């Protein structure tokens, strides 16, 4: 008897019913597929958790990054891996894991990764209670995500072209136009934009990797606070982000309470500050609510957001990651 697989589909994503049936047929050549639909945040987590309890061999999520994060949170702490198929606008997680965009190649890559035991651990983080695995933020990236949600035409552009266009417009417009206060266990300060990142690259601009913290160790949560996102600073910032040089960052020591007086003095003469390995972070709007996103999912306008590490991990199939990033689980046994 073929192993069982739950195919979890976000009915709100951009994919059509014919595409979903095509994916189901492809997966069904190797696995016994059970189709389930997620219509709201949290539903995918419940369905994935139930699948793990019922003994399926694999959960595959087809949708955007919010769908993948939801399903992964339901599998946290279980030995069941998730296969993430691109079905949204940004597809950050599938890109990071090396899952092809073509559905036939993507399904084949996931099944091969399952057979070979190419499984990676992803620490689970929570932003305002919403799970994320790659990054979250309040600034131009969140503004771009909000515009994507509100302007359906941008989401219909191929790949991440719509996001790149929205992000460029948000940067030229000066980001959110709001000031933020950020606070961690070691430091606090004020900024124009704050980003929390757990993986490198952080995002993709029309397919180009977008590096916030080049070479970021897996599982670490770093905070980047940008003091000035004026138009004149953008060319140099854009070059360093895309090239991965990282010269846009100024690392700040956080041990021993050395920044107890705040970070405003540290910002002097610099465009950004970088705090490594924060355990938690709190963001507060100073001039009004600010836009916020987690893993490319729009979470609305917020006056305050708290980000914490949950202490749990989820497993995900990783077709094309380096060996040192993998869990090393060995071949799957059915």
Q: Could you tell me the number of beta strands?
A: 18
Proportion in β-strands = 25-35%
Extract low-pLDDT stretches.
Answer: 242-269, 328-334
Helix-strand topology string: EHEHEHEHHEEEHHHEEEEEEHHEEEEE
Helix content: 25-40%
Describe the structure.
The protein is an alpha+beta fold and 334 residues long. It has 10 helices and 18 strands. It has helices spanning 17-28, 43-53, 65-75, 92-97, 103-116, 140-150, 152-155, 161-172, 234-243, 264-267; strands at 4-10, 32-38, 58-63, 81-86, 119-127, 130-132, 135-138, 180-184, 188-191, 193-197, 203-205, 208-210, 222-226, 272-275, 280-285, 290-294, 297-302, 304-317. Strands 1, 2, 3, 4, 5, 6, 8, 9, 15 and 18 form a 10-stranded mixed β-sheet that branches. It has a 6-stranded antiparallel β-sheet with strand order 14-13-10-7-16-17, with helices on one face. A two-stranded antiparallel sheet has the order 11-12. Strand 16 and strand 17 form a beta hairpin. Helix 1 (17-28) runs parallel beside helix 5 (103-116), helix 2 crosses helix 3 and helix 6 crosses helix 8 (161-172). The longest helix has 14 residues, at 103-116. The protein is globular and about 60 Å long. The N and C termini lie close together (10 Å). Mean pLDDT is 78; it is low at 242-269 and 328-334.
Overview in brief:
This protein is 28% helix and 31% strand. The protein is an alpha+beta fold.
Descriptive keywords:
single chain, alpha+beta, ten-stranded mixed beta sheet, 10 helices, 31% strand, disordered C terminus
């Amino acid at each position: 008897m073929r192993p069982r697989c739950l195919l979890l589909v976000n009915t709100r994503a951009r994919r059509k019913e014919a595409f979903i049936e095509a994916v189901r047929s492809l997966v069904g050549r190797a696995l016994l597929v059970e189709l389930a639909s997620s219509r709201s945040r949290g539903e995918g987590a419940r369905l994935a958790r139930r699948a793990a309890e019922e003994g399926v061999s694999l959960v595959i999520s087809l949708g955007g990054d919010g769908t993948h994060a939801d399903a992964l949170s339901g599998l946290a702490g279980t030995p069941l891996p998730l296969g993430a198929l691109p079905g949204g606008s940004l597809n950050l997680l599938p890109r990071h894991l090396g899952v092809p965009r073509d559905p036939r190649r993507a399904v084949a890559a996931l099944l091969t990764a399952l057979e070979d035991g190419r499984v990676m651990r992803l620490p689970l983080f929570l932003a305002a209670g919403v799970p994320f695995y790659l990054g979250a933020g309040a600034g131009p990236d969140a503004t771009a995500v909000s515009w994507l949600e509100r302007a359906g035409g941008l989401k219909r552009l191929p790949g991440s072209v719509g996001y790149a266009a929205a992000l460029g417009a948000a940067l030229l417009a000066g980001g959110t136009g709001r000031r933020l206060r950020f606070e961690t266990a070691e430091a606090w300060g004020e900024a124009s934009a704050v980003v929390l990142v757990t993986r490198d690259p952080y995002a993709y601009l029309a397919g180009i990797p977008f590096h916030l913290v080049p070479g970021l160790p897996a599982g670490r949560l770093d905070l980047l606070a940008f003091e000035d996102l004026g138009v004149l600073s953008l060319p140099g910032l854009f070059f360093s982000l895309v090239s991965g040089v990282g010269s846009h960052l100024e690392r700040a020591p956080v041990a021993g309470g050395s920044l107890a007086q705040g970070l405003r003095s540290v910002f002097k003469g610099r465009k950004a500050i970088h705090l490594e390995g924060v355990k938690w972070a709190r963001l507060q709007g100073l001039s009004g609510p600010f836009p916020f996103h987690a893993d490319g999912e729009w979470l609305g306008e917020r006056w305050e957001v708290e980000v914490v590490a949950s202490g749990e991990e989820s497993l995900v199939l990783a077709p094309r990651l380096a060996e040192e990033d993998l869990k090393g689980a060995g071949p799957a046994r059915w």
